[in-house]
Amino acid sequence: MITTGSKLLIGSAAAAWILAAVYGIAQGGTLGSIGLISAAIALSLLAGINVLARDSNVSATEPAGFAASAAAQATARPSLWPLLVGIGATTMTIGLVTNRTFFTLGLIAIVAGALEWLIQGWSERASGDEAYNARARDQMVDPLELPVAGAIAAGVVVYAFSRVMLGLPTKTATVTAFSLVGALALGLGTLVALKRGVSKATLTGTFSIVLVALVAGGAVAGLNGEREIEQHHTTGDLAAKNECSAEETEADENASQSVASKSSVTAEITYQNDDLIAKVPGYNGDFDQLTLPRSNPSNVLFRNESDEHARLVIELHPATDDNGQPLGPERVCTALVESGGTQLLTVVIDRPSFAVEEGFAFTVAGSDAQLQVVVP
Amino acid sequence: MSRQVIQPEKVRTDLIPTEPPTHRSGGSRLRTAAFGLGATAVLASCATDAPQDTWAPEGKYAQDIHNLQWPIFLIAGIVGVIVFGVVLFVVIKFKDRGQPIPEQGHGNALIEYVFIAIPALLLAGIAVPTVAEVISLNDTDDAACVVNVTGQQWWWEYDYPIDAEGNICGVKPTGEAAPIITSGQMVIPVDAKVVIRGTSRDVIHSFWVPKLNGKRDMVPGRVHTWNFQAKQPGIYAGQCAEFCGLSHANMRMEIVALDKADFQSWIDNQLEPYQSPEQGTLAATGEQTFVSQCSRCHQIDGLTNADGELVVASPEQFVWSGAAPNLTNLMTRNTFAGATWDLLTEDCRADVWEASPEEFGAKYLEGVTKSCLNEIDLKEWLRNSPAKKPMYTDPESLDDTDGKTRGMPYLALSEDQINELVAYLIERK
Question: Are A318 and A302 in contact (CB under 8 A)?
Answer without folding.
Answer: no
